Amino acid sequence: MEIGRYDAARDAEAVQRIWREVGWIDAERAGIVSRYFECGDAWVFRLHDEAECAVHTTPGAMRHGTEDLELAAVTAVTTSRVARKLGAAGRLTARALAAQAAAGAEVSALGMFEQGFYDRVGFGSGAYEHYFTFDPASLNVDRGFRPPRRLTQADWADVHACMLRRRRGHGGCTLAPPRVVECEMAWTDDAFGLGYRDAADGGLSHFVWGEAPGEHGPYEINWVGYESVDQLMELLALIRGLGDQVSSVAMLEPPDIQLQDLLKQPFRHRRNSERGKFANRHETMAHWQLRILDVPKCLAKTRLPGPELRFNLELTDPVTEYLDGDNEWPGAGGDYVVTLGEDSSAERGSSPGLPTLHASVGAFSRMWCGVRGATVLSATADLRGDGVLLRALDEKIRLPQPKLGWDF
Ligand SMILES: CC(C)(COP(=O)(O)OP(=O)(O)OC[C@H]1O[C@@H](n2cnc3c(N)ncnc32)[C@H](O)[C@@H]1OP(=O)(O)O)[C@@H](O)C(=O)NCCC(=O)NCCS
Fold first, then answer.
1. CATH 3.40.630.30 region(s) of the chain?
2. Which ligand 1 atom is the nearest neighbour of the CA of 74?
3. Structure confidence by residue, pLDDT tens digits, 48-73
């Protein structure tokens, strides 16, 4: 058994085979996996000299308040049928995180297949996201729309540029390599895309991209990009316009609105369509996770108004158990003196006289990002301190719920 960097000449076919075995790609499009692995960084676990587990990370940015942090998104973790339960995925994810942290990444995020698995390498659950399936004709958007431009896979560079320029709030993420978008677009089934070119340079300003199976749907929108809420409204009016033909459209709630506000009689539609092919739904789940990779760098970019709050932090990082010991990054655990304020900081060490917060990196990351407050986390996650400190943290960290706005 051996862990090493992905080497296209040696591993490309084996990695395609893994993706086919886990059902992520069909034989005709397996080549896209190799293009995808050329973006970002990738590690493989070889058994009998063949890659049987692969982890792919993609560099990007994640917004905290008004600041952008360097993101290492974990964009694919897969183990073939022959290498399950050997600890390959856990060890390889830890290895990939170490490489990214050593290269300067400050925070990591991922879409999870299930809760619990990535906690073991230090991740904690992000905010709830709302996933709606609705009748587009029931959209109550009080405006018209112009005829859009048709988008195809050939527009990947424009789509990527729009995703980088798009309106982003707290938690909003971007992935840097444009080719990641090319690959994602290439493996969209029954792809459709519509957009407008109102950007200052004539590029795409707002768009939707997704899957349009069959005559009546259900359509699924995978990406929405826009620079202003007015542009989002035009996109929703455009979706409403599809309602003469399409019976249902599914999408994640765009970060800037409460989508239910724009649905006519949402409860009635849900009741009346229950169990049907075009069932209207509103599902909520925390399907992504995050973790801090570098505490001092993340805290240096944390701006919280009001008086400063100082405390000792004793941080544990379970990723250490998955690292081989010879990595360039030992995890984020250790003792810090943390200051939260307009100019926040974290310095190694401890200061006598300050209260102490004990936390795992996953729980601390959730608190720092505003997913849940310290008092709540002390009841449900690995975080503890005295009640006065916990309440002071609840008061200090008042952030909007983080929303990625990019499903990876
Ligand atoms: C998920 C996947 C990558 C795991 O691969 P793997 O190499 O077998 O994983 P590891 O050996 O590192 O870890 C397996 C362990 O995690 C545990 N585990 C699995 N799900 C868990 C969960 N939700 N919570 C806690 N532990 C979990 C397993 O019980 C197992 O423990 P054991 O060895 O004590 O029995 C693999 O099942 C896979 O490729 N699935 C399909 C693709 C996929 O969904 N990828 C993840 C995308 S986010």
1. 2-125, 130-285
2. 48
3. 999 999 999 999 999 999 999 999 99
Determine whether the shortest distance from the Cβ of 93 to ligand 1 is under 6 A. no
Determine which residue's CA is closest to atom 33 belonging to ligand 1: 85
Any atom of ligand 1 within 6 Å of the Cβ of 81: no
Does the Cβ of 78 fall within 6 Å of ligand 1?
yes
Report d(CA 220, CA 198) in Å as an integer: 24
Tokens representing residue 225 in the block: 């990009």
The secondary structure of residue 190, as a DSSP letter, is: T
For the CA of 92, the closest atom of ligand 1 is 12
Residue nearest to atom 24 of ligand 1 (CA): 116
CATH number corresponding to 293-396: 3.30.1050.10
| CB contact at 8 A, 289 and 124 | yes
Distance 196 CA to ligand 1 centre (A): 42
Q: Is the CB of 88 under 6 A from ligand 1?
A: yes
The pLDDT tens digits of the residues spanning 305-355 come to 999 999 999 999 999 999 987 779 999 999 999 999 999 999 999 999 999
How far, in Å, CA of 310 to CA of 359, rounded? 15
Q: Compute, in angstroms, the gap from residue 56 CA to the centroid of ligand 1.
A: 16
State the span(s) of the chain assigned CATH 3.30.1050.10: 293-396
For the chain, what is the mean pLDDT?
97
109 lines ligand 1 (CB under 6 A): no
Buried b / exposed e across 124-151, counting CB within 10 Å, b at 16+? bbbbebbbbbbbbbbbebeeebeebeeb
130-285 under CATH 2.60.40.1080, yes or no: no
What's domain 2-125's superfamily in CATH? Gcn5-related N-acetyltransferase (GNAT) (3.40.630.30)
Cite the beta strand spans of 141-280 per DSSP E.
149-151, 173-175, 191-196, 206-211, 219-225, 249-252
Instruction: Kindly report the protein residue whose alpha carbon is nearest to atom 17 of ligand 1.
Output: 117
Token reading at 394 = 């609840």
Ligand 1 atom nearest residue 80's Cα: 39
Q: How far apart are the first and last CA of the chain?
A: 29
CA distance 150 to 161: 17
